[in-house]
Hints:
Number of strands: 23
Distance between the termini: 55 Å
CATH topology of the largest domain: Leucine-rich repeat, LRR (right-handed beta-alpha superhelix)
CATH architecture of the largest domain: Alpha-Beta Horseshoe
CATH superfamily of the largest domain: Ribonuclease Inhibitor
Bound molecules: 2-acetamido-2-deoxy-beta-D-glucopyranose
Strand order of the largest sheet: 2-3-5-7-9-11-13
Largest sheet: 7 strands, mixed
Structural class: alpha/beta
Helix content: 25-40%
Amino acid sequence: MALLALAVLILLAGSGDPSSPVRAARSEPTQDRASLLAFMGGLRHEPRVQWDANASACEWAGVRCDSGRTAVLELRLPGVGLLGSVVADTLGRISGLRALSLRSNRLSGPIPAELADLAQLKRLFLQDNLFSGVIPPGLVGLTLLHRLDLSSNNLTGPVPFALNNLTRLKGLFLENNHLSGSLPSISIASLKYFNVSNNELNGSVPRSLEGFPASSFVGNLDLCGAPLPPCEPFFPSPSAAPAAIEVPTKRSSKRLSTAAIVGIIVASIVVFLVLLLLVVCLFFRLRRKGAFRTKEKSAKGSESGTRATAAATGGRSIETGMTSSSKDEMSGSASALVEAERNKLVFVGSGAAEYSFDLEDLLRASAEVLGKGTMGTSYKAVLEEGTIVVVKRLKDVTAAKPEFDALMHTLGLTERPNLVAPRAYYYSTDEKLLVLDFLPAGSLSSLLHGSRGAGRSPLGWESRMRVALAAGRGLAHLHTTAQLVHGNIKASNVLLRAGDLDSAAFSDFALHPLFHPAPRIRPAGYQAPEVLETRRPTFKSDVYSFGVLLLELLTGKAPNQASLNEEGIDLPRWVQSVVREEWTAEVFDAELMRYADIEEEMVQLLQIAMACVSAVPDSRPDIAEVVRMMEQITDRTEGNDGPKSSQVDPATGAGDVGN
Ligand SMILES: *[C@@H]1O[C@H](CO)[C@@H](O)[C@H](O)[C@H]1NC(C)=O
Ligand SMILES: *[C@@H]1O[C@H](CO)[C@@H](O)[C@H](O)[C@H]1NC(C)=O
Ligand SMILES: *[C@@H]1O[C@H](CO)[C@@H](O)[C@H](O)[C@H]1NC(C)=O
Ligand SMILES: *[C@@H]1O[C@H](CO)[C@@H](O)[C@H](O)[C@H]1NC(C)=O
Ligand SMILES: *[C@@H]1O[C@H](CO)[C@@H](O)[C@H](O)[C@H]1NC(C)=O
């Protein structure tokens, strides 16, 4: 290598003047020559690479031109001690470049985005440098690329799914970087060499890549699935949280023997779970026989096609991965089809238009527990192509399949900005799953109570009002248009969409008919007193729970907060007692005290909330009325302040969180 590198160097004693006339009478790629000189001039180079200014650029070391000497086709400067970051407007201008090798230097900074302009590029070797930042998105426009080697740099960020655009790629080398996230489903027919080892990737190895050897994937943070050891089962038992599963590494070998014991216990749990999963899979497979075998064969080639088909048919359910030919094969075995029908994911509402995956994809997804509730456990599932959904695994469902089907189709139609409706479901004797959109901005509960204390930017008054109003509108729609009782109102079921508080949405609604008796709302403190006995939520009990939610926003106290529990009272009664003793201001969240001139609004909302939490159901207002009263509060203040200054709190000039 060193010899080769030396051979490429032309070390000259004198420093040639770049602008001096070229000796060679033959033609010269003048523009490319200038770009090359600018490129080299922008770098500090340790052993100085000197190109003879008197010679044609086509004779320079590392440069190869076309036969007519009109363009530079290749630039190869491996291991010549190039140092620094590439200046702009240099390499990107050598537009005829087919091959570029700058490997084994000490180039730093981001990979130049302008490489995206080299539309003719077939080979790009940047490995073994100090490039940092993300893989430039523009590289996926270089559709002629055969080989892309970015290995052994300091790259971060995801492996872009759009690399699939490089349809002629034979070799893709990304090993020894700091790439993170999950590995997208890269399926390029021509791909022969692939390496992402020694990065920080996690999740499962996509099916499209499982044909590459394990050494293409080793040394990552948390990759699993063939050819690596299998992933943890999609639905881990409550005792085996994802973090508990750790493949022993060299690093841990020095640890004490307790670690080994824990390892053995964890390993046996894993083995047990894997066996369980295998049995379940085998069961499904046997039941779905021919259907699945044909599906798998065609799935690889038709992943992108499926999405289009599913969207075009707009059907309520889809059979992902089935091409028309495999459908023909299937019609031969009608009974297999009936079996498959029975066991598949059913999309509801606009779910079929939004998503295309099947039960198997879901089972293969890597999952993380979001929360456990009285109705079951919620998981964040990351599918192969990077789609993220929430999967709710319901437990102790008592409803039969027809009731379940009917309710799901009703719920699927309740889509609104302020409601998070199910997109798909799965019903079998042993397993009932709901698939919902994943809203990454979290819940009102975490926004309100998460990491209180130093360094936290509190949820401002205007933000609280907007979220409350958005949730109220969702509930009003549910009650009046869909005629459904929510039955599970609490702050952790108010989800936020990034950057838009007005589209905060209620989730997990109207599921109580699936259970008998209806599950209690947990944490305690939201449930209307009468429902504790009847176990049957009503429109009026929803209004009570909504009132508790408003009190939570006003007081900053969660209804199950320890200080309340110690006194043995619930949030409404605590508020009542404080208000009765005429310390109204004491009731409000201390974090709201920094905002001037909002007390009147807070008192008005407090009055609405207190009406909602009336002990007598009939004296509680309807949700539509509640929303109307809340709108009046904001209308009035907007009137006072003139034109709405939406982002900034008019009183203090302080921006609210989450805008
Ligand atoms: C380049 O050419 C000039 C005259 O045209 C000459 O003086 C100089 O020595 C040459 N440099 C080299 C490195 O050959
Ligand atoms: C994919 O390649 C096509 C050319 O084949 C190009 O027009 C398109 O911009 C590329 N897509 C992306 C995301 O770069
Ligand atoms: C790699 O990048 C990180 C920041 O992204 C930086 O802290 C680190 O020094 C870099 N390492 C090298 C060897 O350049
Ligand atoms: C992968 O790691 C990222 C952080 O690097 C994390 O946000 C994500 O949840 C992880 N995904 C899985 C499936 O573990
Ligand atoms: C991938 O890269 C790693 C690290 O350089 C290497 O050990 C491994 O053999 C490579 N695997 C393949 C299949 O090339």
